[in-house]
Amino acid sequence: MTETRPSTPTAPTRRATLRAAGGGALLLGLGVTGCRSAVSEAGSPAGEAGEAGKASTEPRRGGTLSVAVNADFTPSLLFAQSAQSLQQRLIYNTLTRYDDRLKPQPELATSWEYAKDGRSLTLALRTGVTFHDGRPFTADDVIFAVENLQSPLRAAQLRATAAVVTGFEKRGDHELVLKLAHPVNNLFDLFEFMIIADRNSVEDAVTGKRLNGTGPFRLTRWSPGSGLSLRRNETYWRPGRPYLDGVELRVVPQADALLSSLRTGQSQLSFSVPGKNLSVVAATPELAISQYSTGGGAVYLGVNTTVAPLDDKTVRQALAWAIDRERILKQVLGGYGLASAAPWPKSSPAFTEAGRTHYTHNPGKARELLRSAGHTRLDLPLLHVNLPGETAVAEAVQYDLRQIGVHVTLQPTDSAAAQKNLISQNMPGLWTMGHGFAQVQPSTLAVSAYPFNEAKNTSRFRSAAYTKVVREAWTGPAEGARANALREKITDTLLDEAFIIDLAIRGSVQVSARKLHGVTLNKFTYLNLDDAYLAG
Amino acid sequence: MTTLAAAQKAPLDSRTGKPRRPRHPYRAALATARGRTGLGLVLLVVLAGLLAPLLAGHGPTDQSALALAGPGTPGHPLGTDDLGRDLLARLLHGIRADLGIIAVAVPLGAVLGCLLALAAACHPLADTVVQRAFDLVLAFPGLILALAVTAILGPGRVPVILVIALAEIPVFGRLLRTGILVQRGREYVTAARVGGTSGGRILTRHILPNAADPLVVQFAVSLTVAVFIEGAMSFLGVGVRPPEPTLGAVLSQSMPYLAQAPHFAAGPLVTVTALVLGLSLTAEALSREIRR
User: CB within 10 Å: which end of chain B, N or C, has fewer?
Assistant: First the structure.
């Protein structure tokens, strides 16, 4: 009891009042001047895949590249595809990598040969490769990598494909035969996806304590919430690579802060700029936009088929007809991508124009379908990731659904929790997210991606017919008339059952400083900076 | 009720020579230029919020293909946002939403804070418990408290109200407790006690009215703080759920477009500034008159 007299609260003085009044104006002023300092010339048109990455000058050694990301590295999802996978190919290598035509190219595997019956594959492994701790890479590391993905603990999307490998035959340290339970046509998707991690420190890796790989950079620090710091691996197996001294992956969750980071030169590369903000980037002469035309992901509306009345296919189809995909593409994705009712990007062998345009914006038809299912009004929850781009998609979907009498309550959720719900099939009636896996072999989408997995998907959709056609497509040949027919069947099933309602295919959109060259991504959005350099 | 104002000697009226009845400080405050300006600004904003359904020609969540249209676009006097929503409608309904929140949250915090202060005044043990509880809440800065509450409850209107109320409870509680302690030592309280008035009646009928003036000023200050807290929470994405507009949410959405479409941010910025300025001027005018 030290207070002895009542004190009238300190009312704001004139100075404080003026300060408060000026605060808002200052905020606006700072924002406008800060932005305008970098916006004085006409913008650059969007380039095609990796245009900005093409070298126009001699590679220069040195420098640290700062990459702005909107989500932090999640070590527990190191062996699954998570919201943030850029670091995978920086610290680790994969066995092979796809070229633009889905033809595998050597990485840690230098050559391969299928047995005639398709039930085994012989891999020749690269010699002279060492992990960051100096231990040599051998066939045992590949065996471990496959077995590691077979474990349910790793929650790897390509677990089903890894599980097809039922035996290993080592022929020395650098030749390995993988024995398969049955032929599959997406084994090289697994090799593109599967990072080769040090088997002795894998438990440290999934807690983020120590990431030991064979990749071009070694981890020096992970600061949760801030990002990763990487330094050049001086003993990298590619002579003279990488050019960069180091890479910083900086977590910048706010879209405007991320944009400012790029425009002010604090960061030189990002794949996380929301599509609707790309017009601002296009007006910044120091920055270039490149699209990876293979499609790095798709925006979709997921439907939990165990929640009434979404267990009725007609209701789900009504939702699919209600959404204006072109508007979402234009307003939310900035026009970068492709409005599509089917999951396939144009580069996929499963892509058809008929599939892409199967559902168009037709609220009248949607209302009619809803009425035929006995509903005039529905109230449903919709989960979305609490990031600006994702929120905008959810708001657009919410508005379109309201036009047909479906009233949606948004449930903003952080990225890690949303991913957890996706994996554990614990989604509410509706959700919007992005999915990958349509950019590789079409069968991979249906046996691996959480939303589409025929055996266990987030929508809890089960169908013997779907399983049958997926299994046939997976174990059959990758090319030919039969393969095409099976892919078409998968597409038809997805469109008819509408448990995943695709909205738009968005390629990975790269925003980079013009002085940055040689950047590439693999099909699973692993950043490859082997040949990247910062021009002077 | 005993009031200190009545106990003081009133000045004489120059015309009649009789003691002039003192003007109530609240009325005196609102008669000053500062008070009038402040109240005018607040009323303007409040009126805009109350009349939002009449003034706005569109629904605040109605989307269209016309994204980022500039001010003066036919049908959209302030333009549209990135999803083609009318900015005037979102601004007016945003004011309405903000006012709805602070009109519940601040009185709630004030009432709870005052009740706790009264409880604390009744018993030394209660005083210790309440003071430590206040210390606990005050140990968390407003935004940390906001993030903690929304981490448990998720984003939404109720968590915002809860955060603001929680932040205000110790402010009002401490203020009233201090006032009670001071008034309790005054002679009129002793006289009332000697006259046989019960403790409860002394507290509510004599002490409370005399300790209330600072609370009125604090109320105006707290409204200002509440506008900031709501705005900050919505700005950080832990406020009211989208697509419902609030001033902070509209401001947050506009940030990436500052260079491209500055009008997007102008509406909420000007409104927040006017509201905060108005409340601050009103609070200052009240404070000056009460201290006089």
Answer: C
Cα four-point dihedral sign A294, A297, A301, A302 = positive
Optimal mutation site among B80, B273, B291, interface A, most CBs of chain A within 10 A: B273
CA A472/CA A469 separation, integer angstroms: 5
Strands A96-98 and A378-385: unpaired
Chain B residues with beta carbon closer than 8 angstroms to that of A332? 83
For chain B, domains (ranges, CATH) are 46-55+80-291 (1.10.3720.10)
Residues in A closer than 8 angstroms to B211, CB to CB, are 6
Residues paired with B73 in a beta bridge:
B76
Tokens 């168009």, residue located: A360
Q: How far apart are CA B110 and CA B215, in angstroms?
A: 8
Q: The tokens of A136 are what?
A: 């040599």
Res A1: pLDDT: 36
> Which distant-in-sequence residues (6+ apart) come within 8 Å of A520 by Cβ?
A50, A53, A528, A531
d(CA B259, CA A229): 32
The answer, yes or no, to whether ipTM is higher than 0.85 is: no
The one-letter amino acid at A202: V
Distance CA A94, CA A499 (A): 33
Residues of chain A with pLDDT under 70: 1-57, 293-296
Contact A278, A289 (CB under 8 A): yes
User: Contact A512/A267 with Cβ under 8 angstroms?
Assistant: no
Q: How far is CA A523 from the centre of its chain?
A: 9
Kindly report the nearest CA distance between residue B178 and chain A, in angstroms: 5
Q: In this structure, are residues B292 and B25 in contact, taking their beta carbons and an 8 Å threshold?
A: yes
Residue among B178, B258, B286 minimizing CB distance to A7? B178
Nearest chain A CA: its distance from B147 CA (Å): 13
Q: How many CB atoms lie within 10 A of CB B244?
A: 18
Tens of pLDDT, residues B50-59: 999 999 989 9
The Cα A27–Cα A257 span in angstroms is: 14
B10 confidence band (pLDDT: 50, 70, 90): low
CA distance A396 to A263: 28
Taking contacts as CB-CB distances below 8 angstroms, the residues of chain B near A16 are 280
Say how many Å lie between the first and final Cα of chain B, rounded. 21
Q: Do the beta carbons of residue A365 and residue A317 sit within 8 Å?
A: no
> pTM for the whole thing?
0.77
Distance in angstroms (rounded) separating the CA atoms of residues A35 and A42 = 14
